[in-house]
Here is the input.
Amino acid sequence: MTQPADADARRAVKPVICYPNETLPLPDLALYRRAFGTARKTSEVLVPPREAACFHVPAGHFFRISSVDGPQVGDLNLWNAADLSERFYSGKSRALHGTHLTVGERMWSSFPTLRPMATIVEDTLGWYGMDAYGGAVHDVIGTRCDPYTGNLLSGAQYHHCCHSNLIRALADETGMSMAEAEPHVHDVLNVFMCTGFTRDTGQYFMKASPVRPGDHLDFFAEIDLLGALSACPGGDCSSEHTSDVAACYPLLVEVFAPSEGALEGWESLAVNGYDRTHGR
Here is the structure.
């Protein structure tokens, strides 16, 4: 393939940030942290290895996802508890914040609401940053391991990948059939997973997660949430993400209620203000 004469000049053009985020509504992290300091635990769910489980978090409450027993990554879905059509939009969260989320960044909801669903208030892996391979933790670039891609690549019929786990958990929680639940399962926040893109081919990669027992990710619920978390069958994803032989461990989800008055002045943000006329 012949390069054009100005190939180097074209490559040298400086990039422009697609969505400058300086005007995003900022979370009041100081308020959230003070409120979390007053909070009491109201419930917990232990997600078994290679399975998923659902949990509920009222608006203004907190939830924590913790590593227990051994290094383990998890795939997180969030919905508006009263309307499953409003759900986490990983692509727009990635466009607004970057490929990996951490403290002060938010999980945004799908169109047409496009509002914060949850805000990260503490990340014990925040020290990791970006490594020499371009890897970082808590990504919004991977979609979730699923049986369709596995079948496409190897002909496998594997039922405990995160996509299937999340479907079973949502069906059990809501009483929907598996067929009804599947369209509601969506691209995830890969909690604790260490990922990036290779420098030469641009391929999505994973590597052993730096998570250890006791590490946790804390969220503030900006609206009433239904969550589902899958303990990935890849364990720490050091070698593969769909496996019956990888060492896998449970993940703990805890929900906390702040004391009365601790969030005085706070309210959920309104749904997106676009008028939805689309030029007509």
